[in-house]
Amino acid sequence: MPDPRWYECPVIIPYMGGKFELSKKLIPLIPHHKRYIEVFLGGGSMFFRKNKVELNILNDKHNDLINLYLTVMKHYKIFINHCESLLKSRTLYNAFKEDLKEEINYHDMPDPKRAAKYFYIIKNAFNVNFHNPIAKESEWNTKMWTCLEMSKKKLEDTMIENLDFRDLLIKYPVREDDFWYFDPPYVIAGERGDYYVHSLTEQDHQELCIIANTINSEGGKFMISYDDHKLIHELYKNYKIIKIPVKYSGQLHNKNYKNELVILNYEPANYQLTIFRSINE
Question: For residue 278, what are the contacts with CB-CB under 8 A and spacing of at least 6?
Answer without folding.
Answer: 25, 244, 245
